[in-house]
Amino acid sequence: MANTFKKVIDRMMWAQVAPAPNAHAAGTSMCVDMRSDVSRHPFVFELISTTALNRFNIITKGWQLAINPGAAAVAASSTMCFVPSFAAVGTIAAGATTTSFALSTALPTAVGLNMLANRGGSGEYGFKIRLIDTTAGKTEERFIVANTAGTTPTIRVDNPFTFTPASGARYELLSGRVIMLSSGAPAAASWRSFEVATNTLANLSNTNLPTMATDSALLVIDEQYTPYNCEPGEGMVKGTSEYDNNFVSRKALVATATAAGTITGQSTGGDAVVVANEYRNFQIRIVQDTGTPAAVGQRRLIASHTAGASPVYTLGTNWTTTPSSTAKFVIEQPNQIVLRTAANTTTYTYNYTDASQNNGTTTIASNAWSTTYFGTAPAANAAGNLWCPSFGIEVDVARNARHSFNYFFRGGAATLDVLDIAGGTTGAWTGAITYDGNVNAFGAGTCGAYAPYGQEGRFSYINVYVASQISQIYRFDVKNRVFSPYTPTDFIQSGTAAIGGRMAAYAAIDGTDKYDVVLLQSHLSTISQELIPLV
Q: 20 to 30 A from 495, CA-CA: which of 65, 155, 392, 423?
């Protein structure tokens, strides 16, 4: 349904939805899958306490208790995020057909019969699974429509693969995980995950993490998070060739040359317009290579690259198998989580892939934190800090706005910094940047959510907490650096300021039309409201 909203004449209004099961309190927070297609998980998750992780169904608008998360501590400085590419991986067994295959690498927890064929929304789609076949040289994704029970189930998919999967082909379950960060000193369950497809809880490495104090914010830079006009799997720059043309016509770049530690892009179209090092510290993923099938599926971080046409990407580490000179590839975000927490200037970076990452300067092992991968921030953050990424925008011709820019409101005063993850070998922080618009302070209780698909991926929505006032909403234009007032809610904010994330934004999909929906829970209450930002 096309947007027929008339500016100035029509009025946007927040619509009340079912109240949350628990009132917002200090340390509670929300997260959501921000993918732009129907594979996105249909729940907003809310961490309430060490024993309660709730979820809100974006389709039916109902709440329920998802699981007892077993988190170490939930208080001021607790936070959470959703990571779509972080789930079960492994290989498949012999005997596959074009529509079914059995897993040989066990899932972390046994699944029930057909449990993977319904994600819990309205039932039309199961979880998406990706196969990477080094015999066929192809990467293809399908939705699961049936599965047997157990830890090594047989999976049946909605449409046939264009090849018969070989024994040992790699599977990647694109279901995602909820990641929870506890407050206080690091403990065994401080950095904890909930894998949504198998309902699996697990502790992750907390080595190099500090004591979480006052307030914290997590930034997810995941390969499935793409610009508003690209599908998950197409990366940040839409190519001119197709691969895995199944549910959508997915695009890829086509190499024009390769070597042991490089790959060269297109001479025209696609990445022929990039400027030097625009995508440094992003990743290259080989999505198809029928010339050298063993090369498919490889991921490598970009250490540096030249400008187009025919940009040459120098990798952080050499290929295990050098791709053919006509391989198809995508440029994606690098599958990392970046943490800022109050009282220090360290930028903490977590690698959640199942392999080490090396950008040519620094290596991060799998399930590990680095305190040096990205450089030191210009100042410590305070209560009310939040990230505003810009992966959803379309880059302007002059490259004044880029996908590598990740904006960070420090909290306290409304000071804005930016981390350009491509700005140097360790990225580049710029402190106290100039932007249009202002507000008195980003104090305790302030929260926000990036809405990456409606309005060309330009806006983060921010609720600046001011006691005894209408819940005023602002939005920050991450492409043009403008902070402006937006449609307020109809409830009064009350009580002592309580730190926590009370907002989430997700994609509503109606055929080819996509809209962002913003969910907000009232401060210190159970009241929940939604808004579709149409202008």
A: 65
